[in-house]
Predict the 3D structure of the following.
Amino acid sequence: MKSGKRGKFLTVEGTEGVGKTTNIAFIRAWLERNGIDYVATREPGGTPLAEELRSLLLQPRVEKVHENAELLMVFAARAQHLTQVIEPALAQGRWVLCDRFTDATYAYQGGGRGMDTSTIALLENLVQKTLRPDAVLLLDIPVQLGLERARGRGELDRFEQEDIAFFERVRAAYLNRAAQDSRYRIVDASESLEQVQVALAAHLAQLLREPT
């Protein structure tokens, strides 16, 4: 699929315990079955420098992390990721499948932390220019159910240690964005895995039909 066409940028979003890892594996298999050349990556992360910043962001620590420091680390990692991985792949006509992107920043830092979204938008425009995902697959689940799933996985990172009210705000921010943005496709992640993946396949098939 390395033609003169620009690739498509697909992101997967959701709160804790929605099953992103399992369903991203399903999406990767779907892309391969359909002969689509793609790059799978994640945020924060995707390059050596961005992965170092991810470790700094997720590591539990005694020192309170200032919200501006957190936000700037997120966008520093994103700037590196965009220039080194995402933009080159799209320019080559490859699809990019990304585990979280800027919608997560609006949800976690904007909704969860209560940061001014105009500050996030300023950094979004600075770092990304006009680049936005072609589609956002939002795996949605009631917060309590998602946390029960997530907390059965073992040691929690700095974000996973937040209280339920934080994640309720995160989920509300995601759903609010989804209600205002046609790029969002909401998938009910509380359904059975088979039902979730049927829904994902339908959204992917629709995206494949859409012009670049």
